Input
Amino acid sequence: MEILKCNGVQKVFGKGESQVTALNGIDLSVEKGEFVAIVGASGSGKSTLLHILGSVDKPTSGSVIVDGMDIGTLNATDAAIFRRRKIGLIYQFYNLIPTLTVEKNIVMPLLLDKRKPEKKHYEAIVRTLGIQDKLKALPHQLSGGQQQRVAIARAFIYRPAILLADEPTGNLDQRNSKEIIDLLQLFHRNLKQTILLVTHDEKIALEADRIVTIEDGKIIDDQKRR
Output
């Protein structure tokens, strides 16, 4: 089942002589349950693509269909709601709210919808991530690896259609990086979670089922590994 479809996605920044084409005709299809790594040099367009897939930004032209919704047609409010409910986002720098406890950070997407977390799902996530003893702590009281685990828990709390991870290990040491990727693999296997991971690290990319290579805003290679 196709969960994501990009048709001719183009993204242009600026005008006139300062115009830059970040994405130039991206066609991409992702099946539900796939683990896809998106790789490319700095400036290749991979993070721009991820932002568009997550409805954080809009394409200049082309369409992006996520779980049956053309997200390019959504206004800012509807895009934010769709992102909160359907897209799990993990960034390099965690993006936790510093004044909220770990527990509140995790359930924030649900609280914004005035919903309570499903107890078994919530407990399974925090137990799997090994942060059950940190729920009352504030983000600054955690290590980098622990903060990223909280960010992962927040991304999974709504059972997203797609998890988008933008260099999630870029701010971590080698040991914590491996642990984070192992955890993403665990959620992928056990929950059949669809994951798109942007990385410049070849070793991390090799953990994915499929590697998509972007260069100068175009997909130049797309290989399934298993």
